[in-house]
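Quick start: read one record
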Amino acid sequence: MKRILISLLVFAAVSAQCAVIKENKGAYLVVGNDYRAVVNGEGVMTSLMAWGIECLTKDGGCMDKSWDELNKLPGGKVSVSGNTILVKGEEYTTAYNFADGSVKINVSGAEENVRYTLNLKPDKLTRRPDGAWRAVTTCMDNFDRFAYFVSGRNNILVDGVRTSRQKITRGKAITLTFRENTPEDVERYKDILKIYDRELALYSPVEYRVFQRASKYNGTVRFEGKTLGDEVKVRLWGKSLKGNFDTGFVTLVVDKKGGFSADVPAEAGGWYKASVRAYKDGKLIKEKLLTRVGVGEVFIAAGQSNSTNCGQLNSNNTTGMIVSFDGDLWQPGDDPFWGCHDDSIAGSHYPAFGDAMYKKYKVPIAVASTGHAGSGIGHWLPDAVLGAEYLMPERGNLYDWTLWRMKQLGKGGFRAVLWHQGENDVNIDVDLGYNRMKLIIESSKKDAGWEFPWFVAKVSYLPDKHSSPNIREVHQRLWDTGVALDGPDTDTLTGLMRGFNGTGVHFSPKGMIAHGEIWAKYVSKYLDEIL
C-alpha cells in the first residue's frame, strides 16, 4: 500500500461553486459534480469516489506527527462552515475545502513534520511530471504533482505532494482536481491505458458493451469520443432479431474541441461489429474496430450475499452472450461479477440467469452487480453510514454505490433492479421493513431521475430455519402495494440447492443454476407483457 505524504499550510479561499455537505450520525457525506467523499467523525477522509469508482484504500486519509506512527487519526472537534469541514485539534487544524470539481486539504498551526496521508488504491497508476509511470504500490521519490488515473477516461490531478523519508518541509495545500483525460494524455500513455489515442479517442461503445433496448426490436448505440480529425463516420453491423442489420456509414458532427457524440438507431441484437473512422481533410487518419457490441437487456443487481459472489463455486456462462459491468469495465459474464460493494470473489447465479434470458430472448444480457454480503435493509437507507467494523466502508454508502451505477448507465440505460435480501432481517418489524424498503426504492428512482421497476425476491432462508414470516411479509406487501414487482420465492430452494451438502445459506453449483433460472422466469413474465 502506497502512502502519499503531504505537508500543508495555506488554506485556500472557498470556491464560488460548492459541493454539498450532509451530516449523518457523526459522519459527513460530500457530493460534488464528479465525486463523493466521506469524512468520519474523527476528521479522517475514509472514502473518495470519483466517477463512481472508489480511489482510497480502507485506511483512507490520516494525519500524524511521527514517521513511525502511520495511522494516528487527527482527532479534535469537527465542524462544518460553508463548503469546508474543519478539524480542530490541540496542535493543528485540518481544513477540507470541497468545490464541485476539486478538493483542497490544508493543515495549519502544526510542526513541520506533521503530515497528511492519502492512501490511494494500489490497483491504479500514477504519472510523474518526468513522464515515468509507477504503480502506487511502489515507492515514489520527491515531487509536487502527479496524475492519478481512475480509468481510461478520467484522472485526478494531485498538486502539492511531498513524499520523502525525511522531515517534510513547508509546502502548499494539497489540491485534487477531477479531470477528463486529454488527447495528449492518452496519446503519450496509450500503451498503459490501452483504450484511447490522440487521433481517435473512443469513449463509447467499448468491447462487450450492451445498450438497453427501448422496445422488442429497436434501441440505440451511443457513439462518443474525441478526435484530431474534422469528420467521423461510424457503422454498426451484424445479426439482429430481424435478421442481418447494417447501418452503413453514418457521418457524425465533430465540434470545435474535437468531440463527437450521437445515439445511432439500431435493432435489438448482437453481437455487432462497430467501426469508427476519423478523417482529416478527407483523409482517413484512424479507424477503431469493435467486435462485440450489443443491444439487449441490462440489469442492476443489489442486496446481500446471495446477490453477490458468495456461492460455493465459481461458474461460467455457456452462451458467450452474457456480460458484467463493474462501473468501469464491460467484460465477459463469468464469475466473479466484479463491482459488488463487498468485493466478493466466489460464485453467483448471474451466468445461469443470463444464459436462460439469452436462450429465450436472443439478445445480449448484462448484469451490474452492486450488493454487499451480510447487509440489512438499514444499511441500504439513503443516509446510512457504514461503521469502521463493516467490510469495505471506504466504498461509501450502499445506496450511493448502487445509485452511481444507475447514473453511469443513465436514463433508460437498464431494464430493472433485481433485489435479493432478507436473511439478515428475518425478525424485522414488518411496518419498519416495509417503510424502509419503500423509501429505498422510491428514493432511487427520484435520485436517478426516471422510473424503473424493482423486482424483489421473497427471501428468509437460514440453515436452521428455512422460512421466517416477518421479512416474507415485508416482501409480500411490497408486491401487493405495487412498490415492487414480484421476484422468485428463493426459500423454496432447499436441500442440495444450498452449499456444502445443504448446510449453508449460500447456493451450491446446482443451486446457483436453479437460482438463476427462477430469476429469469419472473423477469421473463414481466418482459413478455411489455415487449
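The helical segments are 183-193, 350-361, 398-409, 430-448, 469-480, 499-502, 509-530.
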